[in-house]
User: What shape does this take?
Amino acid sequence: MTFRIAPSILSADFAKLGEEVANVIASGADWIHFDVMDNHYVPNLTIGPLVCEAIRPHTTAPIDVHLMVKPVDRIVPDFAKAGANVITFHPEASEHVDRTLALIRDHGCQAGLVFNPATPLTWMDHVMDKLDVVLLMSVNPGYGGQSFIPGTLDKLREARAKIDAYAERSGRKILLEIDGGVKVGNIAEIARAGADTFVAGSAVFGAGKDSDPQRYNSVIGELRGALAGV
Assistant: This one.
């Protein structure tokens, strides 16, 4: 299995965001995770398409946009135009989940669903043909720095079983992403439960001294080392 590490810029230094993005990719990260919150669907307000457009020239790595907004369809084309590669959303935020997935893909992006800790995976069952990514939240969305919810491991196993069964039938691969409380001490256990893509915010951007451009090498290297044993 190929593993991907996707640092969340929610925990980055926004005064020098382009530099932060370039540094984590240079240190071995695979994706940039981009948390969009609207102070409506979730109790926080973060960033929009203009910020995505601003960081796009700083990296060729995929930008993974996680929409925590409601309604969702209006903003999808803006993020596609701003340079997003992957766009995921919460099924509760869409009136027509199949239509929103199709909208994302029609705009040239990979599409995915995001499941909160208490959201059942049954939303996946009728739209597998339009899914490129399934993202499980291992915290309740809204804020960075929260602790991993252990019950997510069973949910990961359930999601992995669904994805693998679909791959067997269709030949299509769907990525299984995890977001919330991922760190060096638990990433291997999370991978064994089925995740292949790992969002890490404070675990990565909280590492080292701000004056050292290589400060992310160590923590990303440790994450990779833990995954190598899986």
Notes: The two ends are 10 Å apart (CA to CA). DSSP finds eight helices and eight strands in the chain. The first strand starts at residue 4 and ends at 7.
